[in-house]
Amino acid sequence: MKHRKLEEIRKNGASDPKNPLENDEIYEKIFEVIVDHKLLPGTHLKEEVLCDVYNVGRTRIRAVLARLASDHVIELVANRGAFVCNPSAEEAREVFRARRLIEGHLVRRAAESRDEKLRRALEQHIREEQEAHDSGAQGVVIKRCGNFHQVLADQAGSPILARFLHELIARSSLIVAIYEERPGGECELEEHRKLAELVTQGRADEAVKLMESHLTGIESRLDLDPVKKADDELRKALSLNLG
Question: Which of 25, 44, 100, 119 is 20 to 30 A from 5 in CA distance terms?
Answer without folding.
Answer: 25
